[in-house]
């Protein structure tokens, strides 16, 4: 509107105009902050920004390192959970998707079998039953006990449960 008004723009009620502009500038960040704090407590809305990625990444990378003596090289499984864990892991593993090779051209099934890796999925039950497509892709996988993680703003939401399995590296 200011551009179409021309070179001169007469302002009337300057205090009201400046207060309106300040309100329009400050309202969106305040609404977002209130939403982040209040939504998990009032409507049990799962905000993806409250995923504890750093804790998840450290847990899985440390667990793989302790069990195999090698850093975690590959993470696969759920399309949203695997990249998040890989990004937050201290060893910066590659994300590998066997079901979509165009999404991970830097790895092959032979690389994953040779170097080992981690399979992750959102656990829906206490046993951590893996999805059928993962079981077909990796028939030798043995599901571990699911790991629960608390959100940053837990609210009325349940804990985040992650099912996982570790594929050990092949011996040389």
Span between termini: 70 Å
Strand content: 5-15%
Trace the largest sheet across and list its strands: 2-1-3-5-4
- Share in helix: 40-55%
Enumerate how many helices there are, as a single number: 6
Shape: elongated
Structural class: alpha/beta
State the total count of DSSP E strands: 5
Order of helices and strands: HHHEHEHEHEE
Number of domains: 2
> What is the assembly state of the chains in this entry?
single chain
| Average predicted confidence as pLDDT | 88
Rg, nearest Å: 24 Å
Secondary structure elements and pairings:
Elements: H1 2-5, H2 14-42, H3 53-68, E1 74-77, H4 81-88, E2 94-95, H5 109-115, E3 117-122, H6 132-137, E4 147-149, E5 160-167
Parallel strand pairs: 1-2, 1-3
Antiparallel strand pairs: 3-5, 4-5
Helix pairs in contact: 3-4
């Amino acid at each position: 509107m200011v551009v179409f008004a021309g070179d001169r723009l007469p302002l009337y009620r300057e205090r009201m105009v400046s207060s309106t502009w300040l309100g329009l500038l400050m309202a969106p960040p305040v609404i977002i902050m209130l939403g982040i704090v209040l939504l998990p407590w009032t409507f049990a809305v799962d905000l993806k920004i409250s995923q504890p990625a750093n804790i998840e990444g450290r847990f899985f990378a440390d667990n793989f390192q302790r069990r195999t003596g090698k850093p975690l090289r590959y993470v696969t499984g759920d399309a949203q959970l695997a990249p998040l864990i890989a990004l937050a892991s201290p060893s910066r593993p590659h994300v590998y998707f066997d079901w979509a090779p165009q999404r991970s051209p830097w790895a092959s099934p032979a690389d994953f079998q040779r170097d080992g890796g981690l399979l992750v999925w959102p656990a829906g039950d206490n046993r951590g039953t893996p999805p059928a497509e993962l079981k077909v892709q990796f028939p030798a996988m043995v599901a571990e006990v699911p790991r629960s993680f608390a959100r940053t703003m837990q609210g009325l939401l349940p804990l985040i449960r992650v099912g996982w399995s570790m594929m050990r590296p092949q011996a040389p």
